[in-house]
């Protein structure tokens, strides 16, 4: 139903029903009591309409008269500000008595003196320097200047402890929008809302339209624009299509540990890089990925302690540990192989997955993904590594932070045929088994 707000009239307060019905996924945004809000939303989620109405409601609720309340909406271009936000602003305030619209300045003025002003394009936000503001929206922040919030907007909000909403759609993992998201997630003063297409359902786009989008957009484009993935590279990601499908089928969810099943682990061993471990369970014909560990500069003793602690806390047991071929390497300082150390540290079988062609392993991993479920919270970092795993200019996988988690995942997938009801198959049978998975 439409939202009703109390508008301060010159004579007495008057209740006015705005012609705005919030979509369910934006109701928590409107109800948030946080001063700082970060929103990443998919295309056509209704973000601009919601944020325009958020400012309208704030302007109507602010009872200060001197100086009059001032709100700002910053868009990446003048055209976006005028053609979209300005039309929404006028449309949703048409029923409020005493409204005035200054077309040339893109200012909507309420009878109380409160204003909402739009800024768009280039460095238009620089005009805010030196003024006060009670609230600001910075929309499509990835397309705005990186300093728009920190050096211009944030000081404007200091006088009256104004609020800010930073919003947009991801544009990669290395820009200022992604950096601010990481900061916001670590700061309790911020509230972070992630609104991918899997959250909005048919309140935004119909199921048929989403299916068409998956056909018309590349997997990477769909991951970035509709799934709100910061990790999705522009091109060359190995698992984008499979991960998009998982999310659309709601197979990235709360995945409880099945205490009737043992747990397998899949590793990637890094000396100066990351050590990564995936934890999974085989449940019928499904693979349940229940946890992910990653650390830089940690040794095998740390890994063994972490695994034992997780088993103790979760009340489960391990079936076997699948490790890459470099497990057989010997440490120069001790002369002892990594295998020898882990055999002593872990009571379960430690299995070396034979060397294999990376392309074969990636094909196996793609097929395993088709039968997989991932715990949304515990494997969050691991999934981001899988989504960022990509092919380089040479045609080989890029060796970066993402590759270690992806290599551990591939080790687990390739090693699955080595683990049977009789515990371990002979490594010589791996090639034949792999053919059945590719």
Spell out the blueprint of helices and strands.
Elements: E1 4-8, E2 13-17, H1 27-31, E3 36-41, H2 47-61, E4 70-75, H3 78-93, E5 100-102, E6 107-109, E7 115-120, E8 135-138, H4 148-156, E9 163-168, H5 176-186, E10 190-195, H6 197-200, H7 207-216, H8 219-225, H9 240-248, E11 252-253, E12 263-268, E13 274-283, E14 286-296, H10 300-314, E15 318-323, H11 338-345, E16 350-352, H12 358-369, E17 372-375, H13 380-388, H14 401-415, E18 419-420, E19 423-424, H15 430-437
Parallel strand pairs: 3-9, 3-10, 4-7, 4-8, 8-9, 11-17, 12-15, 14-17, 15-16
Antiparallel strand pairs: 1-2, 5-6, 6-7, 12-13, 13-14, 18-19
Question: Which key phrases capture this entry?
Answer:
Nucleotidyltransferase, domain 5; single chain; Rossmann fold; alpha/beta; seven-stranded mixed β-sheet; 438 residues; 15 helices
Description:
The protein is of the alpha/beta class and 438 residues long. The protein folds into two domains: 4-201, Rossmann fold, CATH 3.40.50; 253-437, Nucleotidyltransferase, domain 5. It contains 15 helices and 19 strands. An eight-stranded mixed sheet has the order 5-6-7-4-8-9-3-10, sandwiched between helices. Helix 13 (380-388) crosses helix 14 (401-415). Mean pLDDT is 86; it is low at 421-428.
């Amino acid at each position: 139903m439409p939202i009703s707000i109390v508008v301060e009239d010159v004579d007495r307060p008057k209740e006015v029903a705005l012609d705005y019905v919030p979509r369910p996924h934006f109701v928590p945004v409107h109800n948030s009591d946080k001063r700082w809000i970060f929103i990443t939303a998919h295309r056509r989620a209704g973000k601009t309409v919601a944020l325009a109405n958020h400012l309208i409601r704030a302007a109507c609720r602010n009872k200060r008269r001197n100086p009059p309340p001032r709100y700002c909406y910053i868009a990446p271009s003048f055209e976006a500000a005028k053609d979209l936000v300005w039309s929404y602003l006028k449309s949703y305030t048409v029923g409020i008595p005493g409204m005035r619209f200054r077309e040339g300045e893109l200012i909507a003025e309420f009878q109380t003196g409160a204003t909402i002003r739009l800024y768009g394009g280039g460095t238009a936000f620089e005009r805010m320097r030196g003024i006060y503001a009670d609230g600001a929206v910075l929309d499509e922040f990835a397309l705005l200047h990186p300093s728009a919030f920190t050096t211009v907007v944030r000081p404007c909000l200091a006088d009256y402890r104004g609020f800010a909403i930073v919003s947009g759609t991801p544009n990669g993992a290395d820009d200022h929008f992604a950096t601010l998201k990481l900061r916001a997630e670590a700061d309790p003063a911020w509230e972070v809302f992630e609104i991918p297409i899997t959250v909005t359902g048919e309140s935004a786009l119909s199921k048929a339209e989403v299916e068409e989008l998956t056909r018309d957009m590349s997997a990477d484009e769909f991951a970035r624009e509709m799934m709100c993935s910061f990790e999705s590279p522009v091109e060359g990601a190995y698992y984008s299509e499979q991960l998009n499908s998982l999310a659309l089928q709601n197979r990235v969810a709360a995945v409880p540990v099945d205490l009737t099943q043992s747990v397998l682990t899949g590793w990637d061993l890094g000396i100066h890089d990351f050590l990564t471990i995936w934890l999974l369970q085989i449940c019928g014909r499904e693979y349940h990925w229940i946890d992910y560990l990653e650390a830089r500069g940690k040794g095998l003793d740390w890994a063994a302690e972490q695994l034992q602690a997780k088993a103790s806390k979760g009340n489960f047991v391990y079936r076997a540990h699948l490790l890459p071929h470099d497990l057989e390497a010997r440490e120069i300082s001790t002369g002892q192989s990594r295998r020898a150390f882990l055999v002593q540290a872990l009571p379960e079988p430690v299995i070396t997955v034979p060397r294999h062609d990376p392309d074969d392993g990636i094909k196996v991993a793609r097929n395993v993904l088709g039968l997989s479920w991932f715990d949304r919270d515990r494997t969050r970092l691991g999934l981001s590594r899988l989504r960022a795993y990509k092919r380089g200019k040479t045609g080989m996988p890029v060796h970066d932070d993402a590759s270690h988690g992806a290599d551990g995942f591939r080790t687990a997938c390739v090693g699955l045929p080595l683990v049977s009801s009789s515990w371990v198959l002979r490594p010589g049978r791996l090639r034949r088994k792999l053919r059945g998975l590719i």
